[in-house]
Amino acid sequence: MTKEEVLQQLRSAKSAHIQWRARAQALVAGIEVDEDKVPMIHTDCKFGQWYYGDGQDMATLSSFKAVETPHEVLHAIYMKIFKVLHGGDDRSAWQKLFGKQSNFEDIQLEKANKYLKELVDVSNTLLTAIELLENDIKAVN
Q1: Overall pTM surpassing 0.90 (yes/no)
Q2: How far apart (Å, rounded) are the C-alpha atoms in residues 4 and 9?
Q3: What end-to-end distance do the CA atoms of the chain give, in Å?
Q4: 20 to 30 Å CA-CA from 4: which of 51, 81, 101, 122?
């Protein structure tokens, strides 16, 4: 595989990550998102499939390993968002205690937005790590 092909794969994976993040943001904004479009497990998304697949050709680069942790953390945060927005038992317990659906939804949305801010921050860290990896690939002779 040529350097240009590797860079193209990396850019495609980066683009897939940006789309994934936008779907997570849409979910918190109340826009219906197909669950398959925002996978919870880091190996299931398009970026993860690339990273643990063809991306392994770059595993010798130190910048490659720096991408893994923020990517895993992103999916862990997304799982928290999903549970907050779609958790079942918490909703019924809250309603029994206070009898108000809207208060519960406000609190859940506030939690989801807090997690979303964390997700965006970690996403920015990941994007920076990807840029460093891209620079390292370009520098390889």
Answers
A1: no
A2: 9
A3: 13
A4: 122
Count how many Cα atoms sit within 13 Å of the Cα of residue 125 in the half-sphere of its side chain: 15
Looking at the chain, how many residues does it have? 141
At 122, the pLDDT band (50, 70, 90 cuts) reads: very high
19-61: pLDDT as tens digits:
989 988 998 898 887 777 676 788 988 889 999 999 998 999 9
Q: What pLDDT sits at residue 89?
A: 46
Domain total of the chain: 1
Contact 116, 81 (CB under 8 A): yes
Q: Tell me the residue range of the domain where 38 lies.
A: 3-139
- The conformation of residue 57, written as its DSSP 8-state character, comes to G
